[in-house]
Amino acid sequence: MPVDALYRDDFYLSTCEAVVTAVHEDGGIELDQTCFYATSGGQPGDTGELERADGTKIVLGQTKHGPSKDIVIHVPLENEPRPLVGETLVLHVDWQRRYRLMRMHTACHLLSVVCSYPITGAAVGEEESRVDFDMAETIDKDEVTAKLMELVGENHPVYLQWITDEDLAANPDIVKSKNVRPPIGLGRVSLVCIGENSSIDSQPCGGTHVSETQEVGQIHIAKIEKKGKENRRFRIRFGTPGDEA
């Protein structure tokens, strides 16, 4: 059944109560609401624990969407106990992991500002993220790092604005990605805006992000790889070159 995906409106919500609405044969659990982000748009789904009334925990290995975006399935690790339909659980997101992913995902948006080329692919990771651009030019990674850190240090606000699916269809040019579909199908689309009045960037995205660029912390471009005549892969890591954190 459709879930109330609380993370869509509050990226910092790491715990909540929820009622079990379905338990699949493979162990997947559906809830009436959730703060667990489901894998989408290059960002991995959350991991963490579901706490039962007696204090025992159900450890999750991943969170994913079901047949549609309004269904979220919480997948326990092997041999974890199964809850009962109607049971109330307390959800605990692995916050340290989620926050790193939020910082990384925001860093990817900043990179798309520094390198204003069409995006052909992206993957957000805890230690390293990658963004692929449709570009043939040679560019210095240290120069890109310096521009990224300038945006981080200026501490621009990062916030959401909501538009309708119809608004997005009428303004397709706001999408930077060439082959990744924006998060449509729920009637509304979230725009991740950076800077006062979107002065730095505005991009459709369903991922999770920090609330100001300074939270990204120290990042750098570790490598720029040539993946074709007009494709460059940028690898972002935390820390400074040679001192990844």
Kindly describe this structure.
With 245 residues, the chain is an alpha+beta fold. The chain is built from three helices and 15 strands. The strands form four sheets. It has a six-stranded antiparallel sheet with strand order 3-2-8-5-6-7, with no helix packed on it. A four-stranded antiparallel sheet has the order 9-10-15-14, with helices on one face. A hairpin with a 5-residue loop joins strand 2 (15-23) and strand 3. The longest helix has 20 residues, at 95-114. The protein starts with a strand and ends in a 7-residue tail after the last strand. The mean pLDDT is 91.
Instruction: Enumerate how many helices there are, as a single number.
Output: 3
Structural class: alpha+beta
Distance between the termini: 40 Å
Order of helices and strands: EEEEEEEEHEEHEHEEEE
Major sheet: size, sense and barrel closure? 6 strands, antiparallel
The general outline is globular
Instruction: Give Rg in angstroms.
Output: 19 Å
Helix-strand layout with pairing:
Layout: E1 4-5, E2 15-23, E3 29-31, E4 33-34, E5 48-51, E6 57-65, E7 72-76, E8 88-93, H1 95-114, E9 119-123, E10 128-133, H2 141-153, E11 158-164, H3 165-170, E12 188-194, E13 201-204, E14 219-228, E15 231-238
Parallel strand pairs: 1-4
Antiparallel strand pairs: 2-3, 2-8, 5-6, 5-8, 6-7, 9-10, 10-15, 11-12, 12-13, 14-15
GO cellular component, one term: cytoplasm
GO molecular function: alanine-tRNA ligase activity; aminoacyl-tRNA deacylase activity; ATP binding; metal ion binding; nucleic acid binding
Pfam families: tRNA-synt_2c, tRNA_SAD
